[in-house]
Specification:
The protein has about 375 residues and is α/β, with parallel strands linked by helices. The chain folds into two domains: about 170 residues, Rossmann fold, CATH 3.40.50; about 150 residues, Rossmann fold, CATH 3.40.50.2000. Helix 8 crosses helix 13. The longest helix has 22 residues. The radius of gyration is 21 Å and the shape is globular. The chain starts with a strand and ends with a helix.
Amino acid sequence: MKVALVHELLTLRGGAERVLRIFADMFPDAPIYTLLYDEKKFGGWFPKTRVRTSRLQKKAEFLNRFPFSVFHSSFDHHLFLSRFPSAVEEWDFSGFDFVLSSSSAFAHGIITNSAPRHLCYVNSPARYLWDRTHDVLGRAGKGLLGPLRHAYLSGLFHKLRIWDSEAADRPDALIAASKEVRRRIELYWRRDSEVIHPPIDDFWFESKPILTRNYYLIVSQLAPYKRLDLAIRACNERNARLVIAGEGSDRSSLEAIAGPTVTFAGYRTDEELRDLYSGARATIFPGREDFGLVPLESLACGTPVIAYRAGGATETLTDGVAEFFDDQDEAGIVVAMDKAERREWNGEECRSRAREFSSRNFADKIRDAVARLV
């Protein structure tokens, strides 16, 4: 088959982009369609020769040339939010036999009319359009220009929700990344979906144990909904060393509350992350996520997890490899950290749990789904 891959944005590395890597390995000749592409961050994963961008790419690159541009660090996409639906609809897939998309907001809205067939892997329906709308609008409404931003986004989100729910009927079949995602697909899109959990790359199992283990670790995009502020405050209270690997728009506000034991490591390569996982006492996972590959990467490196008992974490973690907290607040994390330090953790038990989510199992399930649809 002649296959095309679709993914909204290749601007920040996260779990969805790691899933796309598996798709790209499964279909090595398939071009990758994306709205915006940052070659500095993704050239090693997805070569520029393989990527097909939208008409918005040149505008983003133009803005990125200006000093102090909002695009300068991460191709911030919010200025183009209203244009994304029409941009994905402009792609022509008539020359392909099959399209496999990875959607967190817009990729499910491509137009194929079942020729070619379209299988959509849903990382999540757009959170800011549905269950996190009021949080996003509340933050946007702050400051001198807050009322104007609030009014603009409120109207825009209403239009995007209408498009989102209508476009959800376009794929021929949907795969949900977790039971949590399947629940929201049913709630917002009124469609059924099959659950196939994202995979963990074999790369993470090649780690070597590091004996120091004198810090806690967070690997995450720095965004408000990740609730990294809770972990920072907990480590401030316990005077515990915390290393935060990742980048994002919330960095300045998180730095403002961080104590002297908190280090912001910024972007790190996979090799560097593997070493960080291997040397940590535990990886803290404080937010409610749709799935979350970070806990599995940590387990593959033999490191236990301290996690909020909600969302995707309840589908991947067990009491044998994780210390859960039920109250999503600073005090809950402090108690979980105290309990975790009193436990004897088995690194091999952690790795064994992670192996249940291997890339081979994932690829086999995706191939079966493609075969059924074709």
